[in-house]
Amino acid sequence: MSVPSFGLGTFRLTGQTVIDSVKSALELGYRAIDTAQIYKNEAEVGQAIAESGVPRSELFITTKIWVDNYAADKLIPSLRESLKKLRTDYVDLLLIHWPAPGNGVGLPEYMTALAEAKTLGLTRQIGVSNFNIALTRQAIEVVGKGEIATNQIELSPYLQNSKLAGFLKEQGITVTSYMTLAYGKVLNDPVLGEIADKHKATVAQVALAWALQLGYAVIPSSTKRENLASNLLAIGLKLDPDDMARIATLERNGREVSPDGLAPAWD
Q1: For residues 121 and 125, what is the distance between their CA atoms, to the nearest angstrom?
Q2: How confident is the model at residue 102, as a pLDDT?
Q3: 124-141 confidence digits (pLDDT tens)
Q4: Selected catalytic residue, list 30, 39, 158, 178
Q5: Quick one: three-class SS letters along 38-69?
Q6: pLDDT-derived band of residue 1, with 50, 70 and 90 as boundaries?
Q7: What is the pTM of this model?
Q8: What is the largest CA-CA distance in the chain?
Q9: How far is the C-alpha of 181 from the C-alpha of 209, rounded, in Å?
Q10: Under CATH, to which class is 8-248 assigned?
Q11: Active site residue 39
């Protein structure tokens, strides 16, 4: 079981914008694409992939089930719709998007349906997103240890989420970091700026390299080809222990996303 360490995020990208972003990324060498039902761009992502000419076997496609589709009789039919839009017979990773505790569908019901999607071959791996420690434990109880490939969580130098990340590491669950640049807020950080200057890198590359070096997967997005290319260079950037220690001091619990009714009680 594995999740690629570097992928393309498509959150908030729609229409021709997401088509161009995905096609540029694939031309540059990206092979992992992350989308979701609620992004309303699965069809465009599927179109971009089809037009790219990159063989399906080389790609790692992730999508996420939206809260409206958590019920046992809705999850798999909604996934089949997603697959149709994505123009593929399966996704490589299927996630529950938010725990949505007040949604009226219990965790055992939707995690059982998620596992069923894997049994049917509609997804190669399953996982969760935005789950806290307690909910991740519950999910493991339903589907079994070793079944959850990742927990995709908001994580940046300003929100380091070390307690949750440490728990996931103990469980052998990959941490996928989203909003690693904190909606761009970290780009003006003086400490990150100094580290970037030292390595002749960009601040975005430093933030992404920090997450990669901690063993996390990252899925940055961009509409600009030059930024897509630049972000990819973070893979080769090696930060030293002093850099990592300085970034550790930037923690400020700077959470950007916590929608009412969807988010759990954060650790």
Answers
A1: 9
A2: 86
A3: 999 999 999 999 999 999
A4: 39
A5: HHCCHHHHHHHHHHHCCCHHHCEEEEEECHHH
A6: low
A7: 0.97
A8: 55
A9: 11
A10: alpha beta
A11: yes
